[in-house]
């Protein structure tokens, strides 16, 4: 088996030593070539090139942004030419890898991945898709309009200034934006399901392809606990943002069961094939923890059995 190992040197928890240990372990078992990303979008380009060059397997070592780039690169290739894919965790949250049930430790995840290769274990998952230029983009676990996208945007700004994207940084920025009214000041969003009137005056909207939405350190955060890789998309939206309501919703997100389908201050939709989210003015938007700019409308679709992954 011929494999391309794509690593992101800027990933939060990756070190040169961990990369060397993993490369040695993989190279002792499979024929391995290695490449490091140098700029945004490079992982997708490397994945496409690997498919065109006839590689059997692409392995990524990085965070959820690296996973998203590789997935979008691979899905631009016809399925018959598409190599298998395996993801190793090297970021701060690693939601996609952990939601698949793989170890959060990269060395342990490497062992689990090699075992899956030997046994032929594969998993097929649904993906989310948004419209846009050049055919749009796929996302693996979440998309967000509003508050969480504002957080992602600010984290990216801080990273460009040299700060590491740690869970503590995300929490600090999220709390700061909340206290400044970043959640409660703008009920400009609406969700429209096919054949239904739009639900308006929403403060924040989140779309998930699995649960959890994210992790706060070891703790899963679950606004849509029924969301699964083998179902359609789920949506969570805030309808009220007073302090008591928001605190109660956050408490439920951190609970073992997650947020119930119905409750005060929010709405949820479960297992949906397609829908549209609009805003009365441009709002920050993100997928898989990557800020995509400010938008006023995004069309969402669930793509069944879109990705085959070694797991």
UniProtKB/TrEMBL annotation:
GO terms for cellular component: plasma membrane. One of its GO terms (molecular function) is ATP-dependent diacylglycerol kinase activity. The keyword Transmembrane helix does not apply. Keywords: Kinase, Transferase. SUPFAM superfamilies: NAD kinase/diacylglycerol kinase-like (SSF111331). Its cofactor is Mg(2+). The keyword Cell division does not apply. Belongs to the diacylglycerol/lipid kinase family. This is Diacylglycerol kinase family lipid kinase. It comes from Thermobifida halotolerans.
């Amino acid at each position: 088996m011929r494999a391309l190992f794509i690593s992101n040197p800027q990933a939060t928890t990756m070190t040169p030593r961990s990369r060397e240990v993993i490369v040695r372990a993989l190279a002792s078992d499979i024929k391995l070539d290695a490449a490091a990303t140098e700029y945004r979008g490079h992982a997708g380009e490397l994945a496409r090139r690997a498919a065109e060059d006839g590689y059997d397997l692409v392995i990524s070592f990085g965070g959820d942004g690296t996973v998203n780039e590789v997935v979008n690169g691979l899905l631009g290739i016809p399925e018959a030419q598409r190599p298998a894919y395996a993801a190793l965790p090297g970021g701060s949250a690693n939601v996609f890898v952990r939601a698949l049930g793989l170890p959060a430790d990269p060395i342990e995840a490497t062992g689990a991945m090699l075992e899956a290769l030997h046994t032929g274990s594969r998993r097929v998952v649904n993906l989310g898709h948004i419209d846009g230029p050049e055919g749009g983009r796929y996302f693996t676990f979440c998309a967000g309009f509003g508050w969480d996208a504002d957080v992602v945007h600010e984290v990216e700004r801080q990273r460009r200034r040299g700060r590491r994207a740690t869970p503590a940084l995300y929490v600090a920025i999220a709390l700061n934006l909340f206290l400044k009214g970043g959640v409660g000041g703008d009920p400009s969003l609406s969700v429209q399901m096919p054949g239904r009137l739009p639900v308006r005056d929403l403060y924040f909207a989140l779309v998930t392809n699995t649960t959890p939405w994210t992790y706060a350190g070891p703790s899963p955060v679950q606004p849509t606990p029924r969301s699964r890789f083998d179902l359609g998309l789920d949506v969570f939206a805030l309808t009220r943002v007073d302090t008591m309501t928001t605190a109660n919703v956050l408490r439920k997100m951190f609970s073992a069961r997650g947020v119930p389908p119905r409750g005060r201050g929010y709405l949820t939709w479960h297992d949906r094939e397609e829908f549209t989210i609009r805003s009365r003015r441009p709002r920050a938007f993100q997928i898989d923890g990557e800020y995509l700019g400010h938008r006023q409308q995004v069309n969402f679709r669930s793509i069944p059995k879109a990705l085959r992954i070694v797991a």
